[in-house]
Amino acid sequence: MSDASDPTATPVGPDPHEEFPVGFFTRVDETPDTEFYDSDRFVTHIDDRAIAAVGRLYRQLGIDGAGPARSVLDIMSSWISHFVEPPAELVVLGMNERELRANRQASAYVVHDLNASAAMPFPDDRFDAATCCVSVDYLVRPIDVLREVARVVKPGGTVVCTFSNRCFPTKVIRGWLAINEQQRCHVVGQYFRHTGAYHEPQAALCTPADGLGDPLYAVWAMVREPEQATDGERPDDPGATV
Ligand SMILES: C[S@@+](CC[C@H](N)C(=O)[O-])C[C@H]1O[C@@H](n2cnc3c(N)ncnc32)[C@H](O)[C@@H]1O
After folding, report:
1. pLDDT in tens, 178-205
2. CA nearest 217: which of 193, 179, 192, 185?
3. Are the C-beta atoms of residues 12 and 6 closer than 8 Å to each other?
4. Most exposed residue of 44, 71, 133, 208, measured as fewest CB within 10 angstroms of its CB?
5. What digits encode the pLDDT tens for the residues 108-163?
6. Cα 135 to middle of ligand 1, angstroms
7. pTM score
8. Pairing relation of β-strands 217-222 and 202-205?
């Protein structure tokens, strides 16, 4: 049974994570993420061309300082968020406090382990958009996390996941390592679809397909309006069929 007071609780019905192959969301290193990310990593995880592609994409999607989005959440963040021009407010959420504190584009930071709990400490509709850069592959319950992101982003807001082909192999989910780059775009699209909280996702390769440098893929979708009852029937209507 789901807990109605917990917005991240899996809705009544089958757990969509179970539609993926057995072991898809397991990892070589199943120790708490707090241990792995306690070490500072003041590095870039993709090359300069891929970083530039992230910034361009954010601009095209209207979620950086030049666009209408004023308040943006960057989940699984570190010391760098890749905006060409940051939005008026950028809240970064991740595991390593020293890295987050050093993020010069951030207005505020939150240390939070999304694999321990998808529930984030923000009210509904708190942000205009959200980003997750080169990190979705570390989530063991990504559908719960994307459903929770949809709760804290306003309807109509864009949520974008970008990824490349590099990773910490012991912390990435096994399923990610078993599929190719095109399949990863499909899988991330499926994460969005399974939440039921977004319009149809879109995907793009944002770097040239020239085999030079790190590729940068993006999958993004807009948060839907909360579910409207149709045909005048409401779930608690004694006359409704359920
Ligand atoms: C490859 S780095 C990417 C960092 C940053 N987004 C970037 O573009 O450079 C992966 C990031 O995911 C964050 N992360 C990993 N596991 C996490 C978890 N369970 N909850 C929240 N953040 C996590 C780490 O703190 C780390 O900064």
Report:
1. 999 999 999 999 999 999 999 999 999 9
2. 185
3. no
4. 208
5. 999 999 999 999 999 999 999 999 999 999 999 999 999 999 999 999 999 999 99
6. 5
7. 0.90
8. antiparallel
CA of 215 to the centre of ligand 1 (A): 18
Ligand 1 binding residues, C-beta < 6 A: 33, 37, 45, 76-78, 80, 94-96, 113-115, 133-135, 138
Residue with tokens 């944002």: 206
C-alpha 204/C-alpha 217 separation (Å) is: 6
State the Cα–Cα distance between residues 180 and 232, nearest whole angstrom.
Answer: 45
In the numeric block, the tokens 């390592």 are attached to 177
CA gap 107, 75 in Å, rounded? 14
Q: List pLDDT tens digits, range 201-234.
A: 999 999 999 989 999 999 999 999 987 544 433 3
Residue pair 128/182 in contact by the 8 Å Cβ criterion: no
> Which homologous superfamily does the CATH classification assign to the domain defined by 20-220?
Vaccinia Virus protein VP39 (3.40.50.150)
Q: Which of 63, 32, 19, 55 is nearest to 193 (CA)?
A: 19
